[in-house]
Structure to design on (569 residues):
């Protein structure tokens, strides 16, 4: 296995120079060889023992020329591919070193990583969890550079070995140009597969070590390996996932044709409809398809708006109970577009960077017909599984920004059961800086936390989902141990509560509308939407906190006849 110190000495330009020299020799060989092939003596021109000997020698030389021409052509191809494949490796080492300098690590000559802050306090602008993720990214980059370099070295050595052993060629004696073409067509360097079960950092490191040609080939030839890999750039994931749709649709149509089960037919038809809704949503423009997975009972997908890898402020929204791709993706994408419009306005008025948003339906949200199963909305299993996947997605957003050297303010938004899923995700080490849990039946059991910002909650006046999840919330008991979906967001002292009922528009213009029921938080022009936009755009100073009037209105609504239905009074 090669080492980082070995790789530092590699020179892609020297490989290219060698390729050029071998290419010139190949041209001479094929030109002279083809001319020599045309001098073959026929039996009628010359007879006798010397004639047979001359013809045998002629054939032998052409056979050797066939192997030499094919071998040289394979070497030319191998050197060209190696030159391209080697070029990203020094960049990855440099990126690891730059990331190390940013977070207080030094990369040694042979790739050892030293903590330059050991025994010293961290600077106030470096969060410990950000630093831990940075170290993981540095390590992933260096390890992947070694793996990729070892693969390149082994492949190129194999080409030289086969050429030296005369294992290339077509076995004919008539045309060296044909033999060279066969050598060019032979397999030379292979592209290493992404790491099995890789983290976002490992996936990003793998992608970063591929040449542009290898990346393009992977997107076109093996899109199933690319589309759902956290850490791979959004543009590449989207292209890969869009490339996957025709084959996915064809497989589903074939399954539908062969299916005899009513439930299976319904599932396949919903997945086909999901592909239709994804296509319609993507046609809105400025979208990226970041998740596409038909291997579960229901389709999973995520669609981004804007530059998810480069925008300063990125919002990732996770919806909840009864969410499906076929029934929800277009509507929630519209809600995210409205939210971004509000965020863009706030940044024009108050300053700030660009904004992007993702509707993430990357888990099996509980459905109404699953209340008696382990996937029940009353149980945490779906949220825990979904939270693990969401954490990986959020990490991928952070890794992509680090690769682009782009600042990131990441906000996780979760509604209803999606807030529980979001809370479970935030119990991991993610790059999320803020979070908003709205209409939450519980924050999950994984102790959600964010880096540098706040977790906020919103509960509309007649949204009874939080109360149904937590009896204590009905009476506002501050020491609730939590219901089946985790602690009550209103009893967690680490969560700040935002208003859903401030009518005066802080920006002037039309008054804000209150959000009443469980499904109104994202409605355009509401107080709850304004507050989410303030958080998501990086303007937490604009957040309107919950007032005593908000609490009184909600308390009063608990004891109205519509208590269990969530309808506005």
């Amino acid at each position: 296995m090669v080492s980082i110190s070995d790789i530092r000495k590699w020179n892609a330009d020297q490989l290219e120079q060698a390729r050029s020299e071998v290419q010139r020799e190949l041209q001479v060989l094929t030109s002279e060889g083809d001319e020599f092939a045309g001098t073959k003596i026929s039996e009628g021109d010359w007879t006798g023992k010397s004639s047979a000997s001359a013809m045998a020698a002629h054939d032998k030389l052409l056979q050797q020329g066939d192997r030499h021409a094919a071998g040289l052509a394979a070497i030319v191809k191998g050197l060209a591919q190696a030159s391209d494949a080697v070029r990203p490796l020094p960049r990855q080492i440099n990126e690891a070193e730059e990331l190390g300098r940013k977070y207080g690590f030094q990369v040694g000559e042979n790739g050892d990583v030293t903590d330059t802050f050991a025994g010293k306090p961290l600077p106030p602008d470096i969060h410990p969890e950000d630093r831990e993720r940075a170290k993981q990214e540095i390590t992933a980059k260096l390890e992947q550079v070694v793996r990729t370099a070892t693969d390149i070295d082994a492949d190129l050595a194999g080409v030289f070995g086969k050429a030296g052993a005369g294992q290339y060629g077509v076995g004919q004696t008539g045309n060296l140009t044909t033999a060279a073409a066969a050598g060019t067509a032979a397999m030379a360097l292979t592209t290493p597969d992404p790491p099995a079960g890789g983290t976002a950092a490992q996936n990003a490191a793998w992608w970063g070590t591929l040449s542009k040609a290898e990346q393009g080939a992977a997107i076109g030839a093996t899109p199933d390996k690319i589309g759902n890999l956290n850490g791979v750039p959004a543009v590449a994931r989207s292209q890969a996932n869009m490339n996957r749709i025709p084959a996915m649709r064809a497989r589903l149509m074939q399954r539908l044709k062969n299916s005899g089960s009513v439930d299976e037919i319904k599932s396949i038809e919903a997945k086909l409809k999901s592909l239709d809704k994804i296509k319609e949503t993507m046609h809105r423009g400025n979208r990226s398809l970041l998740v596409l997975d038909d291997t579960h009972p229901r389709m999973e997908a995520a669609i981004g708006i804007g530059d998810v890898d480069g925008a300063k402020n990125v919002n990732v929204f996770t919806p909840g109970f009864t969410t499906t791709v076929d029934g929800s993706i277009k509507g929630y994408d519209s809600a995210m577009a409205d939210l971004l419009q509000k965020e863009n306005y706030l940044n024009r008025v108050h300053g700030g960077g660009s904004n992007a948003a993702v509707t993430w339906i990357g888990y099996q949200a509980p459905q109404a017909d699953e209340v008696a199963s382990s996937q029940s909305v009353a149980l945490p299993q779906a949220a825990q599984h979904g939270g693990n996947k969401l954490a990986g997605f959020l990490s991928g957003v952070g890794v992509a920004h680090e690769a682009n050297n782009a600042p990131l303010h990441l906000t996780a938004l979760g509604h209803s059961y999606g807030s529980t899923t979001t809370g479970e995700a935030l119990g991991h080490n993610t790059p999320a800086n803020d979070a908003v849990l709205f209409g939450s039946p519980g924050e999950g059991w994984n102790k959600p936390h964010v880096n540098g910002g706040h977790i906020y909650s919103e509960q509309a006046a007649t949204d009874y989902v939080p109360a149904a999840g937590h009896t204590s919330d009905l009476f506002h008991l501050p020491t609730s141990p939590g219901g089946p979906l985790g602690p009550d967001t209103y009893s967690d002292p680490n969560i700040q509560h935002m208003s859903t009922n401030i009518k005066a528009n802080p920006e002037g213009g039309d008054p804000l509308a209150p959000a009443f029921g469980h499904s109104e938080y994202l409605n355009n022009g509401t107080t709850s939407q304004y507050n989410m936009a303030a958080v998501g755009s990086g303007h937490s100073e604009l957040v309107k906190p919950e007032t005593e009037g908000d609490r009184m209105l909600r308390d009063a609504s608990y004891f109205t006849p519509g208590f269990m239905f969530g309808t506005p009074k």
In short: The domain at 268-558 is CATH 3.40.50.1820 (Rossmann fold). The radius of gyration is 31 Å. The CA atoms of residues 125 and 541 lie 19 Å apart. Residues 471-480, 561-569 have pLDDT under 50 and may be disordered.
